[in-house]
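Is this the right way to post structure tokens for a design question? Let me know if I should format differently. Anyway, here goes:
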């Protein structure tokens, strides 16, 4: 666990792929327990430590997770997430589509994707449609390609809605499958079982102090992330 920001009311940590944010039926130790132990030890707190979970990331996803250290912060963060006042930016490494060649300006333009998603609970998977169907929910995101590699590209995504597996499902629907995401059609898995989706940036007004909070996530250890980021930095110059 890596702490990237903390104060008296909130703590933001980097979640490794494979970790679960909150306890589930697997019985595996959740990240929330690890954070509680960190707070208890660092601040020598007696008894139980309060920690509120305001949002989650899928298990194979890495990146920033915001926790509340006080009930006041949790109540306000829950409202902020519900109202879209917490702005999260994701990065994804996606496969190059053979059926849909890249437009020459895709790296310069932000594009909007609109689908209607149907969640299959048994499969733990969502399906995308280009029109409204029974039990579907509208899903909207914006994306742009930041850099191109030989077989993979680095994409930045901003969610306008919050649906089950939304980024994974919508990108796959346009032939831009996230690297390692076998569930949505990736050619092969990543060695560590992760998918190449990162909660890269979070920005919001602090729920208590009202100061601006803007945090970037470190990159996963896979060298492909660094290579594609370096290409993006060179393109900006």
């Amino acid at each position: 666990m890596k702490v990237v920001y903390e104060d008296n009311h909130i703590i933001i940590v980097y979640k490794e792929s494979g970790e679960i944010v909150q306890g589930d039926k697997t019985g595996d130790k959740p990240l929330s327990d690890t954070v509680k132990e960190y707070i208890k030890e660092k601040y020598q707190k007696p008894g139980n430590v309060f920690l509120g979970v305001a949002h989650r990331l899928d298990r194979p996803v890495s990146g920033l997770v915001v926790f509340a250290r006080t009930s006041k912060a949790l109540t306000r963060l829950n409202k902020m997430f519900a109202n879209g006042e917490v702005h999260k930016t994701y990065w994804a490494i996606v496969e190059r589509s053979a059926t849909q060649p890249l437009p020459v300006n895709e790296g310069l333009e932000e594009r909007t994707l609109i689908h209607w998603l149907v969640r299959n609970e048994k499969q733990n998977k969502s399906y995308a449609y280009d029109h409204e169907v029974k039990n579907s929910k509208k899903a909207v995101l914006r994306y742009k390609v930041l850099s191109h590699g030989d077989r993979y590209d680095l994409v930045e995504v901003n969610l306008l809605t919050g649906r089950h597996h939304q980024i994974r499902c919508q990108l796959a629907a346009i032939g831009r499958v996230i690297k390692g995401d076998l569930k949505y059609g990736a050619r092969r898995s990543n060695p560590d079982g992760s998918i190449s989706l990162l909660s890269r940036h979070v920005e919001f007004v602090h729920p208590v102090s009202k100061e601006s909070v803007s945090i970037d996530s470190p990159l996963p250890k896979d060298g492909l992330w660094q290579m594609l980021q370096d290409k993006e930095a060179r393109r900006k110059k």
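Format looks fine. Someone answered above. Worth noting: The chain has a mean pLDDT of 92. The longest strand covers residues 137-148.
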